[in-house]
Amino acid sequence: MRRIVIIDDDQSFLDILTAYVHQEYPLLEISCYNDPLKSLPEIDADIDLLLIDLEMPGLDGTKVLSYACQKGLSKQRIIILSNHDAEYLHRKIPMGKCLAVLNKFEARQKEVLDMIFKNLQEKKRRQQEVAAG
């Protein structure tokens, strides 16, 4: 299974990203949450990719990041998203705390996300081929 969990309080961003992933990477399974508290039961070590908005009311992205790591999810499967510039993001989330910190709206940052989605899609396709045998 190639499971992606996206947590962001901006519902329009969730809608746009989900529609894009469904269109471009149809083999990927996505769960979206605009309330970080409701996402917590979904977070476990089996998630292939966790995308977390940095700034959310009630429970910010740094707390969700810590929770996910405590639940056994590898830091290499977590990306923090924000509308802040890279300099701010790297000060807030030091290198090594997660796979990447990305600005949601910068084209070059979206290319990185696309590379990751493409990689997950390819792994899923290969799994299906092996299962079909």
Q: Outline the low-pLDDT stretches.
A: none
CATH class: Alpha Beta
Order of helices and strands: EHEHEHEHEH
Q: CATH fold name, please?
A: Rossmann fold
CATH architecture type: 3-Layer(aba) Sandwich
Largest sheet: 5 strands, parallel
Instruction: Please count the beta strands (DSSP E, at least 2 residues each).
Output: 5
Taking the alpha carbons of the first and last residues, their distance comes to 17 Å
Structural class: alpha/beta
Share in β-strands: 15-25%
CATH superfamily: Response regulator
Number of helices: 5
Q: What is the molecular shape?
A: globular
What do these coordinates show?
- The protein has 133 residues and is an alpha/beta fold.
- It has a single domain (3-132), classed as Rossmann fold (3-Layer(aba) Sandwich), CATH 3.40.50.2300.
- The chain contains five helices and five strands; from the N terminus they run E-H-E-H-E-H-E-H-E-H.
- The protein has helices spanning 11-24, 36-39, 61-70, 86-92, 107-132, and strands at residues 3-7, 29-33, 49-53, 78-82, 100-103.
- It has a five-stranded parallel β-sheet, sandwiched between helices.
Provide tags for this entry.
133 residues, 5-stranded parallel sheet, alpha/beta, Rossmann fold, globular, 5 helices
